[in-house]
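thread: overnight batch results

M.L. [08:02]
morning all. the overnight job finished for the chain we discussed friday. pasting input first so we're all looking at the same thing
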Amino acid sequence: MTKLAFGRLAFAASAALLLSASPFAAQAQQKAPASADAQKTATAKPVPAMRTRLLTSLTGYEVAEYLKRNDVLYVPVGPTEVNGGSPTDVEYVIPLAYAMKLAEKSDGLVMPYLAYFYPGGTTTSPATVYVSTSESLPYLKALTRSWIRQGFRRIVFLTSHGPSGNTMLPLVREVFDEMHVPVVWMDTGMVRGPSPNGRPGFGEGGPDARKFQTFGAYQIVGRLNDIPVGLSQPKQEFAKDPSNLSRYIPPFNGTPAGNFYADPSEHGGWVTAVTPEERQEWGQKGVELIESQVAAFDANGALEALRQRYLFTKELEKKYGSLLPGQGK
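M.L. [08:03]
and the structure it wrote out:
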């Protein structure tokens, strides 16, 4: 299941903007609004209608027309692995659903099909597709270089899988160092309204939130029927890891050392029967939950901050030149 981390998203503005030669110059002729009311006004513009937000379902002409007005790409990334009674791509479908809703809200596009990445310790199931982190990283970097070359400057990776940080953290850092474009990674758990301490909130939705999130995600992407009904799995006893290593070295954005699940049921639980009526009900509740979270999340404000980070980086390029790694774009 997903392990949420607060430190994944660095969207704060770095300094005043100097809008000299940059891909954003035609779009941003003044500084971001200073007041909260001005910010709301700036981000409340109607989102242009599109027949789909999936880049792979658009024609080349439509993508080119989109890039004339905006540069936002949401990239859901996940594994294919055993996950209880859910289809094996559930931790890809959840970020896909969030990406689709975020794109609708903030005039972005979505890059689908990235569902075969590092799974973690679930390889004790024959359903788990194993791709190592060292194999995943170069592929994602190659894709990101292409998206930047194509004209996307605000790229947001979305995950819903605990070990994602093993790949995503070096990805966003190394892409930035190489190309000087601040791509960002966030867990879907951060798509919420603000908490009292000013950081993204977690835990809304009650004890069944993950269940509703799963069913809702499959409904949003048009695949609710992929969740099986009437299937169950008898429980069984199995030997468990006796080390309790985290008692001495607590996990931080992952596990303190590599491990395999002692039984596939440890990831996603035992399979319990679901009725067609429950599937439909939970799917609708999940859609409402996801939509409410996306509505509460200031996606446009975050994207504007990402724009500011990019523009300020352009100024640092001028100031420090060859001292900075990479060539920039």
